[in-house]
Amino acid sequence: MINESFNIWAKETRANPQALYARIREVDPVFKGTGPQTGRSFWFLTRYEDCVSFLKDQRFGKQIEKHLPPEKVKEWRGDGEPDPVFEAIDRHMLNLDPPDHTRLRSLVHKAFTPRIIENLRPRIQEIADDLLDAMAGKDEIDLIADYGFPLPITVIAELLGVPVEDRDKFRAWTRGILFEGGFENSRASAMEFGMYMNAMIDDRQQHPQEDLLTGLVHVEEAGDTLDRVELLSMLFLLLVAGHETTVNLIANGTLALIENPDQIQKLRANPDLIKPAVEEMLRYNGPVETTTWRHALEDIEIGGKVIPQGDVVMAALLAANRDPAVFANPDTFDITREPNKHIAFGNGIHYCLGAPLARLEGTLAVNALLQRLPQIELAVPREQLDWNDSLLLHGMKAMPVQIKHA
User: Fold this and answer.
1) Given CA atoms 241, 243, 245, 246 in this order, what sign does their dihedral have?
2) Which of 129, 179, 313, 395 would give a disulfide with 248, using CB separation of 3.0 to 4.6 Å?
3) Pick the CATH number of 11-404 from 1.10.630.10, 3.30.70.20, 2.30.30.30, 1.10.10.60
4) pLDDT per residue over 46-77, tens digit each?
5) Rounded CA separation 315/307 (Å)
6) Strand partners, 296
7) What is the pLDDT of residues 303-329, one digit of tens each?
8) Nearest 10 degrees: CA dihedral of 105, 108, 114, 115?
9) 28 vs 51, 233, 248, 325, 392, CA distance in Å?
10) How many contiguous H segments (helices) and E segments (strands) does the chain have?
11) Does the pTM exceed 0.90?
C-alpha cells in the first residue's frame, strides 16, 4: 500500500524535516511514497538500524542493467536514450557498484589520506582567518555567502588546481545542476561545467602541475586509468561533495549553536570540545538529508517489509540520527554527547571519502568563528530562513546573522 500522508517535499518539511521524520519513524518507518515530479514510487527508511542495514547490503545497487531483467531496466530508464550531457558527469563512485566502484575509489583515495588532509590544516586556518578579517566592522553578514561557501570551495579548488577566482562559477553550476531552474537550466549548467573541465583536463595532459587534477589525469593503478567520462564525473563529485556538504555543516552547525546558548557558551569556554561538537552538529542537523537512491537487485526484506526487485530505496540519514532507539534524548543538542554513532557520512562501501576533510574544515571554521566573533545571532526569525528544496542536501540558501565585535 502506498502511503501518501507524509509530504516530505513540503516547504515546511524542508525547513524542519525532523518533526515529520519522528512521526514517520513511529507510524510507518519503512514507507512507500511517490515522487511529486517523477511520479515514481520509492521506499523511504527512517530507523537507524534499517538505514545501516540498507547501506551495508550489496543486494541494493546502482547498475541495474547488470543485475535486473531487461523489462525492469526499461521500466526505470524508459524508452528514451540517455542524455550525453548528464552521462558525462554521472559515472562517479556514488553511481557505481563493485567492481567498478572499487576501482574508481582506489584510484582516488590516495588524495585523501589522513596525512594529506592534516597537511591542509594551516591553509584552511589561514582561509578562515582571511574571511573573518574581511568581516571587520560589519554588523551583519550572510554566514553562507561570506564564510560557509568561500572556505570549502577555496580548499577544494586549490587541492584540485582549479583557479580560485572561478569559484563563483562552480557554485552557480552546482546549484544549477542540483537545485535551481528545472531541466533546461540543469542541463546548461552541466554542459558549461563539462566544457570548462574538459579544457582543464587537456591542459594538464600537456602541462602537468603539482595538483590533484594532474594526479587524476595521470593516475595509474596496476595499469588502470580513468577515461574522460570517469574523469569528468569524478571532478564533478569532488567539487560538489567537496564544498556543498561543508557549507551545510558550517551553517547548520552554527545555527544549532545559536539556538542553544548554553552549548555555544560551553564551546567558547572550552575550544577543545570542538571535535565532539562537530560530531553532534553532524548528527543533530547534518548536511546530507538522504542517501542517493538504490535499487533492490532482488526481493529483500527490510524493517519487516518485502521490497520487490527493481524498487527504489532511499535512507533518511537525518531521521536515523534522531532515532531514540539509538540516541538518548535525540532532539537535544549536546556537544559532549558520548557515544555518538551517527551516520551523517553514510556507511558501507559508499562511506564519504571526504569525511576527514569535512571534519577538519568544520572544526577549524566553527572554532575560528566563535573565537573571533564574541557574539553572533540570527538577523531574521528562524521561520524566515530559506531552505533548499533538495531532498539530498540539507541546507539554507542564505543565513543572515548579526555580529557584535569586541
Assistant:
1) positive
2) 395
3) 1.10.630.10
4) 999 999 999 999 999 999 988 888 888 888 87
5) 13
6) 60
7) 999 999 999 999 999 999 999 999 999
8) 150
9) 14, 36, 28, 15, 21
10) 18, 10
11) yes
